Amino acid sequence: MLYREAGQFKTSYPADQAIFPIPQDRWSLAIVLVAAFAVVPMVANNYWLVSILIPFLVFSLAALGLNILTGYAGQVSLGTGGFMAVGAFAAYNLAVRLPQLNYIVDFALAGLIAAAVGVLFGLPSLRIKGFYLAVATLAAQFFIEWLFTRVPWFTNYSSSGVITAPKMQMFGFDLSDPVSRYLITLCIVTVLTLAAKNMVRSAVGRSWMAIRDMDIAAEIIGIRPLHTKLLAFAVSSFYCGVAGALWVFFYIGAVEPQAFDINRSFQVLFMVIIGGLGSVLGSFLGAGFIVFLPIALNNAAALFGGALQADTLSHLELIIFGGLIIFFLIVEPLGLARLWQIGKEKLRLWPFPH
Amino acid sequence: MTQPPRKIGGTLLKVDGISLAFGGVKALSDISFEIREHEILAIIGPNGAGKSSMLNVINGFYHPQQGAITYKGATRSQMRPHEAAAQGIARTFQNIALFRGMSTLDNIMTGRLLKMKTNFFMQALYWGPALKEEIAHREVVERIIDFLEIQSIRKTPVGRLPYGLQKRVELGRALAAEPELLLLDEPMAGMNVEEKEDMCRFILDVNDEFGTTIALIEHDMGVVMDISDRVVVLDYGRKIADGRPDQVRANQDVIDAYLGVGH
User: Within a domain: residue A85?
Assistant: First the structure.
């Protein structure tokens, strides 16, 4: 019924440290999962699956990856697009050159390759922080984009520079229809989200947050700064890499390196900031905000179709979108996840003010 | 009250001829003293005397130009802070250095990181050994929370806590590492009398119950004279006195350093 914690006493540490200690949270998550796995494939049409839900999931995964690095470990990165490109091109090359591999293995290897690249470009983080680190990761963004544009081997000598995902098959099943694509994406995102949630609530997550909040004190406690930061870069790039691979194989199908340009990095960064730094839920909220809002505005604008000119409408959309971003950041600079948390704290006391 | 002298053992850490300079500024010159097992050693001195620099040298933050530090019989010239932590040296800071975005519980759990052994992939699964380890360390941390009487703020983000409690949480984080040598940099700065009394009680209890050796910097002379076994006095980067509190109190150099001398 109501979101009330009163009277729920934990009698053991495992119960207190459970991933969702409050039954209401467990139930709502179960409902969301059932809806996502069972209801959506039955009711959603192809447009919803392919153009809205799959990109939402892919962006959520990328935002989660960046959130691990920037929100939890405190290392600002503008290389997200680059790391997604590494994952996309690695998965493509693995699929084309080693067709006998299972696609799940492909994606995992692509993630690992992205992780290795992430570690390489994370090396400067030992010496530089904040904005300067962001500029250093920009190098990853531009170098990787340049590399995939200029070296034809990566695109398998495609004349247009576009890579096209091969037909999806797994265990002999054809998986190229929208419902299967959606379900596989959902499975991968769910598993990786669970892993991320576990990471951030155990020792590795605490060492990331320690480095973020006070790196000097973290070192005094015995945290090795370089090791911890590079691990964050590796995990983050793994997530971004897998997101990039999913982007090519399940969302777009064909992609050129420019799809992962600096705008993509900024887009994911905005998702993380709007959703909430240092929150797994925030990654999904931020991705939802950025993916759904333009579509909602578009549909709302369509109602005025006759009254306004098409280009005025599209400009209005952008203005409202920008305005809403500013509004939300002023109302709650810590992001949508923080709004959610405040709401929970209020509900805990409801109907009393204190 | 001074502790009974019988429990104080041999030398735990020996500082020998340490000199530290930042460019032309000499922070420490030729400092030598020792910290004995199970004792409470106070390092005092006027502002800018080099007390915090001394602690920073001991736990590997600063690398002295000259001198050596012998800890548990092993002499070292240079060491990183995390290596000092691995050898059992923990500390708190003059300005609170807590992880502000994390809860009290998580802050103290972070203090146990060096004791946590399961690998990253097990932690991502949060299952089996990783879960068992997490629970085991939670139990230790809960004992520290009980000891410091901060049960009610267990889940509160430390950024929201009042100053006195933050200091207490920071002590808890240092204790979580089960250190042999605990360095406290002004543990009672900015506290009211009641909070100071609490903190003194915790320091004495830590020393008494866990046998932890403590080196602390403090400006409150009443506290220093009451709880410490020995006092080292620094002034302008030099050691001017070293001995029992009553000896130091009577030392003419110390009186001059604090009250000034006529020229």
Answer: yes
Structurally, how many domains does chain A consist of?
1
CA of A189 to nearest chain B CA: how many angstroms apart? 14
* Residues ≥6 apart with Cβ < 8 Å to A112: A238, A241
Side-chain-facing half-sphere of A96: CA atoms under 13 Å: 16
Which alpha helices (H) appear in A178-251, and where do they start and end? 178-200, 203-213, 215-221, 225-246
Domains and CATH numbers, chain B: 1-88+179-263 (3.40.50.300), 103-173 (no CATH)
Q: For residues A208 and A216, give the distance between their C-alpha atoms in angstroms, rounded to a whole number.
A: 13
Hey, is the C-beta of B138 within 8 angstroms of any chain A C-beta?
yes
A19 at the B interface (CB within 8 A)?
yes
Q: Does B123 contact chain A (CB < 8 Å)?
A: yes
Q: To which H or E segment does residue A92 belong?
A: helix A80-97
* Angle at which helices A225-246 and A80-97 cross, to 10°: 60
- Do A207 and B113 form a contact (C-beta atoms < 8 A)? yes
Contacts of A196 in chain B (CB under 8 A): 124
Strands (E), B45-150: 66-71, 74-76, 89-92
Sequence-separated (6 or more) residues with CB below 8 Å from residue A135: A78
Q: A280 lies in a domain?
A: no
pLDDT at A175: 78
- What is the three-class DSSP state of B3? coil
Instruction: Please report the ipTM that was assigned to this predicted complex.
Output: 0.89
What local confidence, expressed as pLDDT, does residue A318 receive?
83
The pLDDT of B227-244, averaged and rounded, is: 92
Residue B67 CA to residue B77 CA, distance in Å, equals 8
B6, pLDDT greater than 50: no
CA dist., res. A121 & res. A79, Å (int): 9
Q: In what helix (H) or strand (E) does residue B20 lie, and over which residues does it extend?
A: strand B11-22
**Which token pair is A24?**
């209401």
Q: Please indicate whether residue A113 or residue A173 has the higher confidence score (pLDDT).
A: A113
Is A221 close to B90, i.e. CB distance below 8 A? Answer: yes
Share of chain B above pLDDT 70, in %: 97
> Can you list the positions of beta strands (E) in chain A?
163-164, 169-170, 173-174, 254-255
Contacts of B116 in chain A (CB under 8 A): 203
The residue whose two tokens read 């808890």 is B172
For residue A289, being part of any structural domain is answered with no
CA of residue A269 relative to chain centroid, distance: 10
* Dihedral sign, Cα of residue A294, residue A300, residue A303, residue A308: negative
In the stretch 246-285 of chain A, residues with CB closer than 8 A to chain B read 278
Range of the domain at A140: 22-260
Residue pair B70/B48 in contact (Cβ under 8 Å)? The answer is no
Is residue A82 domain-resident? Answer: yes
**Are residues B81 and A217, on separate chains, in Cβ contact within 8 Å?**
no
Instruction: Give CA angle at A88 (A86, A94), nearest 5°.
Output: 95
Q: A330-343: per-residue pLDDT in tens? A: 888 888 999 888 88
Cβ B70 vs Cβ B26: under 8 Å: no
